[in-house]
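Re: that backbone. Tokens:
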């Protein structure tokens, strides 16, 4: 079976010009990895490791400087593929004057959810993310965690096959974190593919089948759940050991 997400020697170099001087910065370099259909795949790394750059490449928001990025067999960006993706950003901006229900309904329209099932679809997904009771309050009255739940609803409203989540538990309390964990595992049980980045290693080890560790824009290692399953804190040890070892090597060199 072909991977549903694949990066092949993907490199993104940013060029910034200031006072006539061009400065080069690496987002990611020679990143090769694949994600299987139906698995939960986690991306770990310190700040600046290249996680957000990788996600933007998968969404077609950035073009690789070299290498290839494919999702569902198509080179990104591809509109037909984007319709199959639900995206949860780390910090979503949603109009604070709308109610949660109104906001999700707008996203449902944008995602071309058929009008005859839209009302029920919006109600169902609001219930799934635990926002039914607060759906008719204005978003400006919401806590950060409640805004995050509405953002999850917009990512899921069109029933996508692939979910890309950037720090999905940011701002959530412990009960909400548990609910997100259950949601991710439910998505997996439905045959969905989940690609997520997170700083919360203890949660990653509870839901992911495999993880990739990025350091300085490069792939440091890929680890499977059997390597940490049943040993609480084992993934954190794998991550910290890998990050400390590779970060000490020094900065990347351009070739």
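Recovered sequence:
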């Amino acid at each position: 079976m072909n991977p549903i997400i694949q990066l092949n020697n993907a490199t993104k170099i940013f060029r910034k010009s200031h006072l006539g001087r061009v400065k080069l910065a690496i987002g990611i370099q020679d990143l090769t990895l694949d994600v299987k259909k139906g698995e939960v795949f986690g991306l770990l790394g310190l700040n600046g490791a290249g996680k957000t750059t990788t996600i933007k490449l998968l969404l077609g928001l950035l073009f690789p400087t070299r290498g290839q990025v494919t999702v569902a067999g198509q080179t990104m960006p591809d509109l037909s593929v984007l319709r199959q993706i639900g995206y949860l950003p780390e910090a979503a901006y949603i109009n604070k004057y709308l109610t949660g229900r109104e906001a999700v309904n707008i996203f449902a329209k944008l995602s071309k959810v058929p009008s005859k099932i839209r009302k029920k679809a919006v109600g169902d997904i609001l219930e799934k993310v635990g926002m039914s009771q607060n759906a008719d309050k204005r978003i400006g009255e919401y806590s950060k965690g409640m805004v995050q739940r509405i953002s999850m609803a917009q990512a899921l409203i069109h029933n996508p096959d692939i979910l890309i989540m950037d720090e999905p538990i940011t701002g959530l309390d412990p009960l909400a974190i548990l609910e997100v964990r259950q949601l991710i595992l439910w998505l997996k049980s439905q045959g969905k593919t989940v690609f997520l980045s997170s700083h919360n290693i203890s949660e990653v080890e509870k839901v992911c089948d495999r993880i990739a560790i990025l350091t300085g824009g490069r792939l440091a290692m890929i680890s499977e759940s059997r390597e940490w399953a049943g040993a609480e804190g084992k993934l954190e040890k794998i991550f910290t050991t890998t990050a400390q070892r590779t970060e000490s090597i020094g900065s990347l060199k351009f070739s």
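The domain at 1-84+163-168+194-255 is CATH 3.40.50.300 (Rossmann fold). Helices lie at 51-58, 79-82, 100-110, 115-128, 144-156, 174-189, 201-207, 234-247.
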